[in-house]
Write a structure and sequence with these properties.
Elements lengths: L4 E5 L2 E3 L4 E7 L6 E6 L11 E6 L2 E16 L2 E10 L1 H6 L9 E3 L1 H9 L11 E2 L21 E3 L8 H10 L4 E4 L5 E4 L9 E5 L8 E8 L7 E7 L11 E8 L8 E6 L5 H17 E8 L2 E2 L2 E2 L4 E7 L4 E15 L3 E9 L6
């Protein structure tokens, strides 16, 4: 049985495609899609809201950016490209700069998003229990609810950039789930793996078509130091700076320090140091597997879920986070899914 893909625009639905590519990635701001089909018999225009369903499940809510119509010997073709709703925030610049003293993340988000179309501000998820540790924990401070001394917004910044920066000052990410839900929080760190990748040397039970492991220390540092400045000072001379936070990474094989300045509130330097450490760990280790079809055991492959990996070829056995997945259809390979796996709970 083939995977069923549906593009819905208003009350119209298209289900026959020549090829497609549907992306979702926790660490990419605006997830893209590209669909090619014959003449669907309906008019499709840039700027329209659309929804993509895979096996009956909503996997992307987005906006059509580009429509390309063509004709060749095989007939008419139509190429539709777009991005999820986060693309609106990546494109939209902040146009008002009110006093943002002592403002919470939720209040800032509601203020910046009030004019953005298609975004339901009441359905934004604000994760609780964040204390610079793992997603889903029940204890600890609710850092997202603590007002910031001063939320810095400058001309030339996009809405996404401002909200991403504020979230990071609280040890969190700003990302979108495949169904269009906007989330301030952290990637999944614990729980039961819903998926499995198997690559045994004897071939028994293998389900991955290909696999890769990527290890990269080019953006990793052995020590991260965040310097703070006194309130109201602009010059970082010896009397105005102090070490506000410091973390180390024992996995980096030699001394390689990173020093950054932070003029945010008292919560920010510690969270920024932890965030940078997690970010470099996430970027330094990746697993990529290509799977047949778009689902496993009746579930579509999805981001922010855990996956059990048993890869004897790369001597890997453990539980990893699906931070990215790409549904693809091509004439040569049919429907396949690329899974991008990393460390559970890591911000990047």
């Amino acid at each position: 049985m083939s995977d069923k893909i549906s593009l819905q625009i208003g009350d119209r639905r298209i289900e026959k495609f020549v090829r497609y590519r549907i992306e979702a990635d926790l660490y990419t701001a605006d997830d893209a899609f590209s669909l090619e089909f014959g003449d669907p018999g309906v008019e499709i225009d840039p700027g329209q809201l659309c929804r993509l369903y895979v096996n009956g499940r909503l996997e992307l809510t987005g906006i059509i950016d580009r429509v390309e119509e063509g004709t060749d010997r095989s007939g008419n073709t139509l190429l539709v490209e777009g991005r999820d709703l986060m693309g609106l925030l990546v494109d939209s610049y902040v146009e008002e700069f009110p006093d943002l003293q002592d403002i919470t993340l939720k209040a800032l988000a509601e203020q910046l998003l009030k004019k953005v179309p298609f975004i339901n501000r009441k359905e934004i998820a604000y994760q609780t229990g964040i204390a610079g540790a793992e997603a889903g924990q029940t204890g600890g401070n609710d850092l997202l609810g603590i007002a910031h001394d001063h939320a810095k917004v400058e001309p030339g910044q996009t809405i996404f950039e401002v909200l991403k920066e504020y979230a990071r000052s609280r040890g969190a990410m700003f990302f979108a789930l495949p169904d269009g839900t906007l989330v301030f929080g952290r990637p999944k760190a614990k729980g039961k793996p819903l998926f499995a990748v198997v690559m045994r040397l004897d071939g028994a039970g293998n389900n991955a078509l290909s696999g890769r492991r990527i290890r990269d220390i080019s953006r990793r540092f052995s020590k991260i130091v965040i310097l703070g400045s006194r309130q109201g000072t602009d010059q970082l001379d010896a009397g105005n700076i102090n070490v506000a936070a410091e973390v180390t990474d024992s996995d980096v094989p030699f001394h390689k320090p990173l020093v950054k300045c932070s003029s945010n509130d008292g919560q920010s330097p510690v969270q920024e140091a932890r965030m940078l450490l997690e970010q470099q760990r996430a970027q330094g280790f990746q697993l990529v597997y290509r799977m047949a079809r778009h689902s496993q055991n009746g579930r579509n492959y999805t981001i922010n879920e855990l996956c059990q990996v048993s890869d004897e070829r790369r001597r890997i056995s453990g539980i990893y986070l699906i931070y990215g997945r790409v549904f693809e259809l091509s004439k040569d390979d049919g429907p396949t899914t690329e899974l991008r796996l990393g460390l559970p709970g890591a911000i990047a």
